[in-house]
Design brief:
The complex is a heterotrimer of chains A (456), B (169) and C (261).
Chain A lengths: L12 H5 L15 E7 L5 E7 L1 H4 L4 E5 L28 E2 L5 E7 L2 H10 L1 E6 L34 E5 L2 H7 L2 E7 L13 E6 L5 E5 L4 H12 L6 E4 L16 H11 L3 E4 L2 H7 L6 E9 L5 E13 L5 H10 L9 E10 L13 H19 L3 H8 L18 H11 L6 H5 L25
Parallel strand pairs in A: 1-12, 10-11, 14-15
Antiparallel strand pairs in A: 1-5, 2-4, 2-6, 3-5, 7-15, 8-13, 9-10, 9-12, 13-14
Chain B lengths: L1 E4 L2 E4 L8 H8 L18 E4 L2 E4 L12 E3 L12 H8 L9 H13 L6 H7 L11 H12 L21
Parallel strand pairs in B: 1-5
Antiparallel strand pairs in B: 1-2, 3-4, 3-5
Chain C lengths: L4 E3 L4 H8 L5 E4 L5 H6 L7 E4 L8 E4 L2 E5 L14 H6 L4 H6 L2 H5 L11 H8 L3 E5 L5 E4 H4 L7 E8 L3 E6 L12 E6 L5 E6 L6 E2 L1 H5 L4 H8 L13 H21 L2
Parallel strand pairs in C: 1-3, 2-3
Antiparallel strand pairs in C: 4-5, 5-8, 6-7, 6-8, 9-10, 10-11, 11-12
Helix pairs in contact in C: 9-10
The chains are: A alpha+beta (456), B alpha+beta (169), C alpha+beta (261).
Amino acid sequence: MKAVGARLPRYDGIAHVTGRSTYVDDVRIPGTLWVKALRSPHHNAAITKLDTSPAEKLKGVHAVVTAADVPLLVYGHLSALGIPGDEPLLADGEVRYQGQPIAVVAAESEELAMAAVEAIRIEYEERPALFDIRKAFDPDAPVIHEWGNWYPHFEGELDRRQIRKGDIEWAFDKADTIVQGVYRPAAIEHVPLETQVCQVVPEADGRLTIYSCTQALYFSLGVVCAHLQLPLNKVKVVGGTVGGGFGGKVDTATETMCALLAQKSGRPVKWRWTREEEFLCSSTRAPWHMEIADAVTKDGWILGRKMLTLHDSGAYARFSPYGLTKHSFHHAGAYTIPNIHFDGYVVFTNRVPTTAMRGFGVTSVSFAVETHLSRIAVELGIDPFELRLKNANRIGDTTPNGVVLTDPSTVPTIQAIADAIGHELTAEYRTTTRDTRSGAFLPDHLVSQLGNPEEH
Amino acid sequence: MNLTVNGVAREVESGPLTPLLFVLRDELELTGAKAGCQQGGCGACTVLVDGEPRRSCLTPLAAVEGAEITTVEGLGTPEDLAPIQQAFTHHYAAQCGFCTSGLMLAAQAYIDHGGTDDRHAIQEALSGHVCRCTGYVKIVDAVAAAARGDEFDLTVTAGSSGMTSGGVR
Amino acid sequence: MPAIDVLTPTSPDEAVAAFGDGTGVVVLGGGTIVVPEMTYGRLKPERVLMLGRAGLAGISRSGSTVTIGAATPVADLVGLAAPLGPCAANVADAEIRAQGTVGGNLCAGEGPEAPRGDLQGALLALGAVVRSAGAGGIASEPLEDFLPKRRSRLALDVSFEEPAAGAFANLDRPHTDDYTALAVSGARAADGTIRLAATGAGWWGLRLPSAEAKAGDPEAAGAAALADVKLADDALASAWYRGKVLPVLVRRVLAQLKEIA
């Protein structure tokens, strides 16, 4: 293995510093038309009238595409993971978030495309909108999604991701104190330097070539072919250097609409989002609402954790059920908590649909559980490192969802951090290891959760 | 309208108010300068105008008539990389690469005007440039190294100044 | 698309003549505000007056009077004394400062999401006078009289008397390309009169007369300043936040002025 541990130069380093790396917008195809979208100005509304003919008649406009033109309008991008589709490629009779695309236009210049968008006649009937995930459960909340205000299709048609382990009532009864906290990280924009951009070329034999900034080339290929009802071998996706994605370029937000415009117009088309479109309409990292209540003993054992998570999916599900699932696996953090009661909901609001962003689903729960541990340390008057080392995962401990740990690195990591910043640990905590619990680190209440790592 | 681009006299047909960025990318097919925001907020479009760094997305063509424009394509070639390009390569100062050309040109101007390896001065000079990938440490390392006149071994990547083993600075 | 008429005067007189009474003319100094508006399709001008070569740049001194040409880049003000120097240094970053002009900054219209015109506050505190062209000919007037009509005039230059003391305090933001969320400028004239002004506390720079009236008591002046402004939420900061910070900046400016003999 020559690569591990070596300081190899980037294979594309020279291309980057000489301006030769080719991003999608650098691809030049003669005859390319420019794309602009008609986007909803409303958060939640019915479309009562839509007439694209004034746009189609404009000189220099070569194609206008709406929901009616899409062979398969709704396709669940993660249907292979059991998550059904709910989001139309283009709005169909209603809009559920400000910025939702309703029609796309291909014209000889960006100005003409914009003029065509402005020429489309559209009327709306606004509906009450929902922005606060906590209010989604109120009996008088507006219902903003055909599935109800939260996702109901977890396995077994459960309306939440649910994890139960041990006996939470026992833990709360036995505890010396209950420590509570609420954690609400806000949405975050990815802001890659390169905005969403796509170039599609209709080939002579009916195939399509798509130059895409996607982070997930084969995934996007599948999505495009599903919407267009084309076999996979009819579409070639050319990926390449992506000018930053961070999770925001998996949604396949431009490729299918450009493909439809290329088919309809018979011309190559390019869609380059403006920075304003990125901020207004591109998907974000989701806002979360997490409530944690830990049953703790005065000497710092966490007997049990009760947690409620609400994840703001925005107007449609996209990947949120998957993100919440990942989140739920990690809600005990790197710590062994034998009694668990977790409920997580994917909640719909009239915001831009949320999506993956670095550490999808997990950064939220890490932030919450670590902050919560610090809170416990303050409330109990215990050293925050030692609180963590006490409860840290060790070999043979089991996770909330029953996984037996064989290689947890929590103990050495926390000790290394303490050492790096010169934080003194008492002898017991300085010398404890990640080996299977014993002695002072194996209280009665952790005995039954031990599993056999060899059998795992 | 006439301007010199990377040492070559060019006559361009674009209208007088066309932002220089689009004259370079669309008419002259020099795609090294990037459209990151088209409102001067990110620096991905920066080129040198008579040796001074300017946002090409904000510069109307008529304002640079007769000027000498330097783009990343004029800094150096793979066979003959400028020191700043070598520095960025060796110090791993580019990840996605989208901000790289604007940053290097601004850095080149900083060094040409006598800029040193003082990290604060480098950050001040480059403060209008946004990078979403690297966290900036290696970019400053690269500019400092180029300002010092370091020699660069392009077969290996340098460690980062911000991540030496043995703890946090 | 109809062609745009681009005027490129090569002298101040030509610029004045080209501007006429300003009807249908968009003035382009450096372009840092106007060009993106055009790129985004929000501004579709018929006539654009480019001032880059009209001989309107430069800083001159005559006794204690400083005169700054409207096409002077903001960068050229960076070395000047407070409040103007630090105010200019705080504008965006080096590349934007080198391109944007004093006139463009003074005459900026309301931004779509936040106030513009950082230099207005500093120049109001300095008691600046603007010489401009437009309907009725060339006129000189105090900046506060010019500001409400800045969109219909062609600023030619701005002048002020060097103060005995100057100060500047602002809300510092990490990303340098934002317009200033809130800043206070102050100046003490030779006769001891103190002038205070704020940017980011309204859609354009405002004098703070209630604070000036209490300049001897910084605490009281800070509180009084709130009466002079109409704070609003925008993309940069909330009205609530600005309301908390404004008194602090007023106190700081007055404290700085006091320290200068």
